């Protein structure tokens, strides 16, 4: 991709009627480095906060009509993969916040990496940045996790995440990212999701607990403990604005870059 980044990055939002899509549109309105040119929805045609919303079923036509620099997608994996494939054909960069790729039906695809085959394929043609969490605090947490696990070998490790009652995937994409960091930083015996019955905790196992209640925006806690001390690293998202702004920062950063997979940590580092 050779497009030169414009002063204002032109963004198309998929999942526009969702909790995150709406927030992306709202946050973009307060910034001067991005402009949402349109959203797409399966059902709604009309406007959200003055932004035109077009039919998701005509995504290719919408791309041609609005000529965005970047897609910002917060939808569902089965829709996201279609949007991203169309963007690859239309030479549009992709910022994907959708989670749950690992759990969906295409996860067993022989070319898949964590169920993200469509993202990987698209990244051969356009820049693609997928993050399960666009909060800068979570980026800091991920770095802290590695250090804590290295410094505390042999400590028991448990993760608890809490989200609103509408969240589909469990554990959260962020919990999975934390788990990957833990496992890359130490020797562990496997993940145990929830517990019931009478068996004792094995040393080396990583306990994973997912809670779903009310309107919780997102909480992740890593607990490391031995017989004598406890360390807790906790992140709480106070508002979806933090994810929306992070995704928009990623969109501005990604516009005009070459094809490939990029990571949100690169955006934060700059
Ligand atoms: N990376 C991050 O920082 C971050 C932060 C928060 C949430 N997320 C993730 O972002 C995703 C969306 O979260 P949310 O809370 O905004 O969910 P949501 O409120 O349910 O919104 C999802 C939107 O996707 C669209 N959609 C659903 N199924 C579709 C389909 N089959 N085809 C086309 N569009 C479809 C729907 O819009 P229409 O019905 O109008 O088409 C819906 O409004 C989830 O995967 C969530 O885990 C990521």
TrEMBL record:
Q: Which GO terms describe its biological process?
A: diaminopimelate biosynthetic process; lysine biosynthetic process via diaminopimelate
Alphabetized UniProt keyword annotations? Amino-acid biosynthesis, Cytoplasm, Diaminopimelate biosynthesis, Lysine biosynthesis, NAD, NADP, Oxidoreductase
Protein localization:
Cytoplasm
Q: Name one GO cellular component term.
A: cytoplasm
Q: Where does NADP(+) bind?
A: 42
Ranges for the Dihydrodipicolinate reductase C-terminal domain? 137-267
Residues where (S)-2,3,4,5-tetrahydrodipicolinate binds: 164, 173-174
Q: Reaction(s) catalyzed by this protein?
A: (S)-2,3,4,5-tetrahydrodipicolinate + NADP(+) + H2O = (2S,4S)-4-hydroxy-2,3,4,5-tetrahydrodipicolinate + NADPH + H(+); (S)-2,3,4,5-tetrahydrodipicolinate + NAD(+) + H2O = (2S,4S)-4-hydroxy-2,3,4,5-tetrahydrodipicolinate + NADH + H(+)
Active-site positions on this chain: 163, 167
> What's the Enzyme Commission number for this chain?
1.17.1.8
EC top class named in words: oxidoreductase
Q: Which residues form the Dihydrodipicolinate reductase N-terminal domain?
A: 10-134
SUPFAM superfamilies cross-referenced by the UniProt entry: Glyceraldehyde-3-phosphate dehydrogenase-like, C-terminal domain, NAD(P)-binding Rossmann-fold domains
- Stored InterPro entries: DapB_C, DapB_N, DapB_N_CS, DHDPR_bac, NAD(P)-bd_dom_sf
Q: Pathway, per Swiss-Prot/TrEMBL?
A: Amino-acid biosynthesis; L-lysine biosynthesis via DAP pathway; (S)-tetrahydrodipicolinate from L-aspartate: step 4/4
Q: Which NCBIfam families match?
A: dapB
Supply the name of the protein.
Answer: 4-hydroxy-tetrahydrodipicolinate reductase
Q: State the organism of origin.
A: Haladaptatus litoreus
